[in-house]
Amino acid sequence: MGEKRKPDDWNAKSQKKKKFKVSSGFLDPGTSGIYATCSRRHERQAAQELQLLFEEKLQQMYGDMKDGEGESGDNEEEEELSIEDQIKRELREIKGEDSSKDSSSGGMKRKDPLAFIDLNCECVTFCKTRKPIVPEEFVLDIMKDLADPKNMVKRTRYVQKLTPITYSCNAKMEQLIKLANLVIGPHFHDPSKVKTGYKFAVEVTRRNFNTIERMDIINQVVKLVNKEGSEFNHTVNLKDYDKLILVECFKSNIGMCVVDGDYKTKYRKYNVQQIYESKFQKNDGEDVK
């Protein structure tokens, strides 16, 4: 009797393992996307909520991208992507990988602009994005919709905070420097776009990460913003900033983006739950009056 039950028990355990094994839980260098924190043990439900929200916003911002549509801007993007491609090639050379392979693809189909990745990390999920999506612009547009006082429909139940990632790299200081120069350049060093004297801050979040110390990351990024010979005279201000540099460290990956000051003041650090609560409390107060 014991021999007959043993295979059944083994099959049941095997099925359970297969059921919950979705991905390796790692992000490749060069990845762009959006981190999302969520309620504990509701990572999949949060991803499902975001899938609907993101696809709706994708359609609204970029139109239909299926069956070859939405690729008219590919040629226009080639020049913008050239710097990014150089960074990716350098990253692959450092890792000793074949430069003919795109390490950022991660198995994501050419036509698929959104792909959710199970990070095997409690309370966190990640959505990998590809062009034409610009993660910081994409998330900001979503937050504008959610913060609109006229929009009282609660779209998510489990999602808490969204964090866009413009690009990412492996957890090495020399690659962090290349990544920072790529990400912060347009926001701090482009004469055609940048004003002098920005107040800025750096915020670092680390999950399952101990490769580089938090203050080493901050000091290096600040040094690159105020690089020697810079004419812009940007200054660090931790409370009242015009620009905030977000650095997300997860396992062997470092992601980065730059957001404006309203990230904190108007959009509550892109915390979806807090935005909902603020709107509903304000609405309840007006009803009482």
Automatic annotation (TrEMBL):
GO terms for molecular function: RNA binding. CDD domains: THUMP_THUMPD1_like. Residues 70-83 have a biased composition (Acidic residues). The keyword Mitochondrion does not apply. Residues 1-24, 61-83, 90-109 are annotated as: Disordered. Residues 147-260 form the THUMP domain. Keywords: RNA-binding. GO terms for biological process: tRNA modification. This is THUMP domain-containing protein. It comes from Saccharomyces kudriavzevii (strain ATCC MYA-4449 / AS 2.2408 / CBS 8840 / NBRC 1802 / NCYC 2889).
